[in-house]
Amino acid sequence: MNILYIFYYTILRFIRDRKGFMSMLLLPVVVILVLGTALSSTFKHSDISITPVAYLNLDNGTASNAFNEFIKLEDIEEIISVKTVASYDEGIEMIRNREVAAMIYINENYTQNLKNGGTGDIEIIKSQHSSFGASVVSSVIDSYVNAANAIEASGKLGNFIPQFSRSDSVKKMPINSTGRTPTSMDYYSVTMLVMTIMYGAHYGIDELGKDYFESIGQRLKSAPIKSYEMYVGKTIGIVITLFLQALILVLFTKYVFNVNWGNNLTEVLFICLILSMLSIGLGVMICMVSSSRRKATSLISILVPVFTFVAGGYFPIDNVGGIIEKIKYISPNYLAQRAIFNLVYEAGAQETQFFLLIMVGISLILFITSAVAGRRKLQ
Question: Where is the ABC transmembrane type-2 domain (predicted)?
Fold first, then answer.
């Protein structure tokens, strides 16, 4: 019964503090509006244009002529636009002037080297200013080289005569990306929601910290309330309070900003509840271990922006590689964001469940650690 009373009055005290309650909601709403509007063009889709490429062939043999026929195929011309140049320097100059994404170069000994059993190299000089275009050119050349190697290997089998039939390996189907990829408003509604919940760790620090490390903590030792009752009641109260703020933020962005939260709003809110538990557990654990509200508050103020950054909360940073690519998986923000995005855009149920299990596991570890540390403080 004591747990229920503590739980009830904890929530009531937060709700009565209208200024603090609303300020926790006002900041993310403003940030979502500003970033969602200012960076809207970043999330718009654009068509992939044909990649321009310079081409220099100094060989007049049969092998290079076969490549000439290859780049004139209709399917290839839909991908790259070949511009024949008269010299190597001319091609390099076009790359420097950003007229082409790369240059394809075949030297004068290409066919002869192949006849002598050597290697025939098709060189690609890439532009540093068009990495995507250069990768397109590389893919085209790789496809030709792989096919040529397969034919050569078949010919070495002796009496085996390869037979080929032309067929399309890719079936073209028009797709509509509307509602399947996030807009800037959708993206920042998710990331700022997650960041707001993580900042809720301050609730755990303030509520549990003052009961354990201020004068009221001394009174608790002589009060007819067990330490676990105070811990459980307060913890549940602040978790539900933080979850209510997340609920308000989700509903506000859904109906005011027209944010797409998918067809499983209940499951999105469940993720918010799990993250609320993790956030409060993190705040309480740091407070109990550090034995100082001030130290815990300072540490959370550092950790949350770092978690948000490595998770791509301020701007998308997918596939950046390096240390950020490795440490983002320990960021609660990343786990929650991926779980929500996967759920909203139906990107993978198994991955969503995996992220949720990790979040639940982290929450349990945090609460167990804080409970053990808190019990020692009261003894």
Answer: 154-377
